[in-house]
Write a structure and sequence with these properties.
The chain is of the alpha/beta class. The chain is 40% helix and 18% strand. The structure holds UDP-4-deoxy-4-formamido-beta-L-arabinopyranose (WQD). UDP-4-deoxy-4-formamido-beta-L-arabinopyranose binds next to helix 7 and strand 8.
């Protein structure tokens, strides 16, 4: 079976994808520089899969080291590229850090494989901004990004589109994630936010476990059923399985062109208040929350049209919001007794 390189392999989505690749019979090499993840994830993955994961500590911006590594591993046929900085707020404060890291690492990977590889790129629904039509399809117009982070995803997709046009041996699938949440059923891996969580669900679980104060609902005056903003939350395990489907599609030469884009969501929107209610109903925990002002840069509502992913990737999200909340809570409780 082919060997797949997973960059950012000890990160939130990378580690869950490593498990699903293993389950699908792939050999995997994880690559990370631990700039936004913990080495302990490697031990956790060994417990989950029963195998010591093959791992290389490497900064993708170190072109010489990356080229040497790829040279030594001709057996790698596919790359799933997660490694990137992804904190929206931090990207506003440190744009150059984001542009340098996120573009330089992507370009180095393409060059290291001499533009002959199957590449799955971790993109984001953030490229859509506030869509004009919902649910949003892959051919919706890309709107001006609200943050340098979002801009790095848009420009990275342009880099890949332009390169694929003149490089037939480079096959790429960009996966546009909606909102990844939840954790592996073992509660041995999950989201590991550094500092105060910016994202809703890790803030909810940290508030419920007593690490944070009340949850603030950023805005209740949106033009949505209950006034709070709507997102398409997707279980990280469903998301991970979609990456295996994308690699398979390219390996089996089913791609309609050498650059394809797919939405990865459930096709269903949930509001902030609905997520809070689902957390309380699923876990039995009472959440302390208050209504606050809107957050700068937030879109009002977005959820994905996932027909193309279902028809061409043969993939559909299967886990519902309750499973997202219960797995996220189980992971938070595990972290309390086993701090990373
Ligand atoms: C979700 C909703 C907030 C925190 C971002 C990135 C996206 C992807 C996922 C990387 C919004 C509200 C949040 C809180 C709240 N990241 N909220 N109180 O902003 O939709 O997407 O993370 O791939 O690319 O843009 O996710 O979880 O931050 O917010 O009310 O304490 O929850 O306003 O409506 P977001 P989020």
């Amino acid at each position: 079976m082919a060997k797949i390189l997973v960059t950012g392999g000890t990160g939130f989505i990378g580690s869950h994808t490593a498990v699903e690749l293993f389950n699908a019979g792939y050999e995997v090499i994880l690559l990370d520089d631990f700039s936004n993840s913990s080495r302990k994830i490697l031990t956790q993955l060994k417990t989950i899969t029963g195998q010591e994961p093959e791992f290389v500590e490497l900064d993708l911006c170190d072109e010489a080291k990356l080229n040497a590594f790829v040279e030594q591993h001709p057996e790698i046929t596919g790359v799933i590229h997660f490694a990137a900085f992804k904190a929206v707020g931090e990207s506003v404060q440190q744009p150059l850090k984001y542009y340098r890291n996120n573009f330089y690492s992507l370009i180095n990977i393409i060059n290291a494989f001499k533009s002959k590889v199957n590449l799955v790129f971790s993109s984001s629904c953030t490229v859509y901004g506030q869509p004009d039509v919902l649910p949003v399809t892959e051919d919706a117009p890309v709107k001006r990004a609200e943050s340098p982070y979002g801009n790095t995803k848009q420009i990275a997709e342009e880099i890949l589109t332009d390169t694929c046009k003149v490089t037939p041996d480079l096959k790429v699938i960009s996966l546009r994630y909606f909102n990844p949440v939840g954790a592996h059923s073992s509660a041995l891996i999950g989201e590991l936010p550094i500092g105060v969580p910016q994202n809703l669900v890790p803030f909810i679980t940290q508030s419920a476990i007593g690490k944070r104060g009340p949850v603030t609902v950023f805005g209740s005056d949106y033009n949505t059923p209950d006034g709070s903003a709507v997102r398409d939350y997707i279980h990280v395990v469903d998301l991970a399985k979609a990456h295996v489907a994308a690699i398979k599609r390219m390996e089996e030469e089913k791609s309609e062109s050498n650059y394809e884009v797919f939405n990865l969501g459930t096709g269903k929107g949930s509001s902030v208040l609905e997520i809070i209610k689902a957390f309380e109903a699923t876990t039995g925990e009472k959440l302390d929350y208050k209504i606050g002002d809107r957050r700068e840069g937030d879109v009002e509502q977005v959820w994905g049209n996932v027909t193309k992913s279902s028809e061409l990737l043969g993939w559909k999200a299967e886990l519902d919001v309750n499973e997202m909340m219960s797995s996220a809570w189980k992971w938070e409780k595990y972290l309390k007794d086993n701090p990373f």
